[in-house]
């Protein structure tokens, strides 16, 4: 099953070199304008909310990119200060393949992923030989396979480690036929009638589907795949990074995330800074009360 201490060391897919220097500027960062590369809603929405609340002297500039490669290249090449567009496994595979040094400084939410079907109404309807569309990149392929395993539809080789592929399936009772599809094209596979299609709420929303419409969903209580704010390792302890972390874990961001959670799109992966401070104040107040009570008892 999924909880195999799998993703202690993580990743995602092969990157290419992109000429973004004309699009982004390091000098802006020196002026305390922090460029954050992101891809699409709700990630871009969260960047904009963080931009509204980040503390002076810093400000955030959203840089929207068109695919799942540009944001990491931009950060690694110091053309953006950070990115908000991926989960930890995806980032760490980029690090491995590019010998990069990106680090996560704040998890924000865990997207509710699952399998959708234009054919089946329930899992009991699944037929032998069904076609299954899964992502073509290693980390999301592994994630999709683990979701199938969680729901007892396949079994995976325990020796496969962190990133199993279809070749690591040891039991396939339904004789599924697997098709690898680029993550951004999975919605198209659904529209083409593929019986089972893995997808994210962000992408499947383009055809008016929600996680509640999925045939079955992922079970991940550990937020393994939470979407993260990331920067280069050399910047992680900087004042700018701390200001970003505070903005991305602000009550305003949490309120937005909670609204999406109510709709079943995602699960929050953090407590807001305000809540943490309130808890600390409450703990201190309770401690003071206990001390006062102890002094009264002593008297």
Describe the model.
It is a single chain. The protein is of the alpha/beta class and 299 residues long. It has helices at residues 26-30, 43-53, 70-76, 88-98, 138-150, 186-191, 201-204, 239-248, 251-262, 273-298; strands at residues 33-38, 59-64, 82-87, 102-111, 114-116, 131-135, 155-156, 169-171, 177-181, 196-199, 216-217, 227-232, 266-268. The strands form three sheets. A six-stranded mixed beta sheet has the order 2-1-3-12-4-13, with helices on both faces. A five-stranded mixed beta sheet has the order 9-6-10-5-11. Strands 7-8 form a two-stranded antiparallel sheet. Strand 1, helix 2 (43-53) and strand 2 (59-64) form a beta-alpha-beta unit.
Proportion of residues in β-strands: 15-25%
Q: Element order, helices and strands?
A: HEHEHEHEEEHEEEHEHEEHHEH
Average pLDDT over all residues: 85
Taking the sheet with the most strands, its summary is:
6 strands, mixed
- Low-confidence segments: 1-29, 293-299
Q: How many alpha or pi helices?
A: 10
Global shape = globular
The number of strands is 13
Distance between the termini: 59 Å
Side-by-side strand order of the widest sheet: 2-1-3-12-4-13
As a percent range, the share of helical residues equals 25-40%
| Cα-atom radius of gyration | 22 Å
Structural class, by secondary structure, is alpha/beta
Compact overview of the structure:
This protein is of the alpha/beta class. The chain has helices at 26-30, 43-53, 70-76, 88-98, 138-150, 186-191, 201-204, 239-248, 251-262, 273-298; strands at 33-38, 59-64, 82-87, 102-111, 114-116, 131-135, 155-156, 169-171, 177-181, 196-199, 216-217, 227-232, 266-268.
């Amino acid at each position: 099953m999924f909880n195999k201490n799998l993703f202690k060391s993580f990743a995602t897919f092969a990157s290419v070199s992109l000429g973004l220097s004309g699009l982004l500027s390091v000098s802006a960062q020196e002026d305390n304008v922090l460029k954050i590369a992101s891809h699409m809603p709700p990630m871009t929405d969260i960047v904009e909310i963080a931009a509204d609340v980040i503390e002076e002297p810093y400000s955030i500039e959203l840089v929207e990119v068109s695919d799942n490669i540009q944001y990491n290249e931009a950060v690694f090449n110091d053309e953006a200060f950070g990115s908000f567009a991926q989960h930890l496994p995806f980032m760490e595979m980029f690090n491995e393949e590019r010998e990069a040094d990106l680090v996560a400084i704040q998890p924000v939410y865990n997207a509710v992923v699952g399998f959708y079907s234009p054919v089946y109404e329930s899992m009991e309807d699944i037929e032998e030989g069904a076609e299954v569309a899964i992502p073509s990149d290693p980390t999301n392929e592994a994630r999709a396979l683990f979701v199938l395993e969680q729901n007892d539809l396949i079994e995976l080789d325990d020796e496969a480690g962190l990133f199993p592929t279809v070749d690591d399936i040891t039991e396939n009772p339904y004789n599924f036929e697997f098709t690898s599809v680029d993550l951004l094209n999975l919605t198209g596979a659904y529209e083409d009638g593929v019986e089972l299609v893995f997808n994210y709420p962000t992408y499947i929303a383009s055809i008016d589907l929600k996680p509640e419409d999925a045939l079955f969903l992922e079970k991940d209580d550990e937020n393994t795949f939470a979407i993260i704010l990331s920067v280069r390792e050399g910047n992680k302890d900087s004042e700018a990074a701390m200001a970003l972390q505070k903005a991305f874990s602000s009550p305003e961001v949490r309120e937005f995330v909670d609204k999406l959670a109510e709709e079943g799109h995602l699960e929050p992966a953090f407590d807001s800074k305000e809540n943490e401070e309130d808890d600390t104040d409450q703990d201190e107040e309770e401690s003071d009360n206990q001390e006062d009570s102890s002094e009264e008892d002593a008297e």
